[in-house]
Amino acid sequence: MYKGKIVMNKRLYISLICSFSSISFAETTHEMIAECQFDYDDFNFCTKENLSKYRQALASRKNNFDSSKILLNVGTPQDMRFVAIDTQSGVVFPLSDTISGYIDEHQDKKIKPPIIQYSIRSKVLCVEGRLYAYRDAYEHAKVCYSIQDNPYARFKKEFSRVATPVEIR
Known about the structure:
Blueprint: H1 2-26, H2 48-60, E1 69-73, E2 79-80, E3 82-86, E4 92-94, E5 98-100, E6 102-103, E7 110-112, E8 115-117, E9 125-133, E10 136-149, E11 157-161, E12 166-167
């Protein structure tokens, strides 16, 4: 009788934990987004559509970046806008850069998609291509990003460049 009670209590405890964690992620709101919009950038990471994408990713995707995060493009395939979603806390960390493919010398047509490299075993997202953030544009560059400590950021962390982009040709 005593053993059965322990097993029952463990099952109840585990089901309660699962219920609470899925409830909190199912109700992801703009308060869980580290930054809704960057200065002089029209892209809004806190739209209803993007909030829905974050909820869907938390409910259906496995971690694919930095051991406990989901890397997700909420932009378009042509103009990528990445976020890293911490699956333990539900916090969404947007990346300020827009990443797109290489363009021709006339700058009117994309000739090659960007190269995107990341893994669940790495804390770094590295990209090659065209990068744009307000007053900071690179036509053909390589740069890496990671979640870094920042005592002034909303959640004391931010998704930002590890170093200055390097122009490549």
